[in-house]
Amino acid sequence: MHTFSQQALVNLGREHWREFQPKRYKALQQAGKLEQELQAAANLTLSEMESSRQLGYTQEEAWELSMQNHLLVPPEKGSPQEPLPDNPAYTSLAEVNRMRDQPPPASPSRKPTTS
Question: I need a surface site. Which of 32, 35, 50, 83 has the fewest CB within 10 A?
């Protein structure tokens, strides 16, 4: 189970952005806005999770719905595509991304029968 405190999400976002959003990470760091943006992303994630919880989703379901919107954003072009294998949050994110990026299964084509 994940820890959903604001600071835990900030730390997770920092790791994720450093690894998968290196240009953004560096630009925000140089501008002195990295911590501010991480705090905002964590707050938005927690807010969306709370809204999902009020709709009846479990905490884990709310996390799955909210994590990619602000905090665990997709990798920049040229960034590593596979997450760090020893981090359960990254492993979960990779699985969600793989499922999302797969094309829908092709339906069998039916040929008209001739009489």
Answer: 32
User: Residue 30: exposed, middle, or buried by beta-carbon count in 10 A (0-12, 13-18, 19+)?
Assistant: exposed
Domain residue limits at 20: 6-97
Total domain count for the chain?
A: 1
Q: Is position 35 within any domain?
A: yes
At 54-103, the pLDDT tens digits run 999 999 999 988 988 889 988 988 655 544 455 566 556 556 655 655 55
CA atoms within 13 A on the CB side of 103: 3
* Cα–Cα dist 2/42, whole Å: 14
| pLDDT tens-digit map of 8-53 | 999 999 999 999 999 999 999 999 999 999 999 999 999 999 999 9
